[in-house]
Prior knowledge:
Its EC number is 2.7.4.2. It is an enzyme of class 2 (transferase). The protein is α/β, with parallel strands linked by helices. The chain contains nine helices and five strands; from the N terminus they run βαβααααβαβααβα. It is globular.
Amino acid sequence: MPQIILLFSGKRKSGKDFLTTHLQKLLTDRCEVLKISQPIKSHWAKEKNLNLNELLGDSEYKEQYRLDMINWSDEMRTQDYGYFCRIACQDAAEKPIWIVSDIRRKTDIHWFKEKYGDLTRTIRIVADEATRIKRGFQFKSGVDDGISECGLDDYTEWDLVIDNTDGKQKLEEQLSSILALLSRL
Length: 185
Ligand SMILES: Nc1ncnc2c1ncn2[C@@H]1O[C@H](COP(=O)(O)OP(=O)(O)OP(=O)(O)O)[C@@H](O)[C@H]1O
Ligand SMILES: C[C@@](O)(CCOP(=O)(O)O)CC(=O)O
């Protein structure tokens, strides 16, 4: 069992991977980064003979397949909303801190809270649209107005909100506010 699970959420190009990668560097071997999208991308890469590393990265490549991956994964979720959360956790090593870098739906939070209760902390990363555009965001109908991007827009119970808009919060400040959530460890 982990001792704490940090659930990160944020819209496309808000900086989820950027911040969780920096956090992982700081926590080194005390943490494990889990991605709910990992089993989705692995499946997709295998089925369609695609480059998994490109799907896992932040290039334009994965954007070509995003809508198809969303539609396929949502179909799976209608039968079992925890399906990908469960697989993402299956291979987690025995580390005290788990960082889940891509929470997108209320059912994701529900699944983790149901299974791990008090161990979970929810973190929302926000960045204004101009910043996200500068970092590669382009609005796509079906993606940016759908559940994958908007499913947590009206969630209000975040333990922490981080502003990752250009020039707003320094990285050190962002990381120390996350570390404060770990103070009971
Ligand atoms: N605070 C920051 N300073 C500089 N560059 C940043 C910052 N945050 C994010 N970026 C850069 O912006 C780009 C998008 O960030 P990132 O991939 O972390 O977003 P994401 O929320 O994981 O997006 P997606 O959901 O599309 O995968 C990356 O190239 C990343 O390095
Ligand atoms: C298909 C999907 O998992 C892709 C996520 O990719 P990324 O976290 O933005 O790199 C999004 C979703 O599950 O809604």
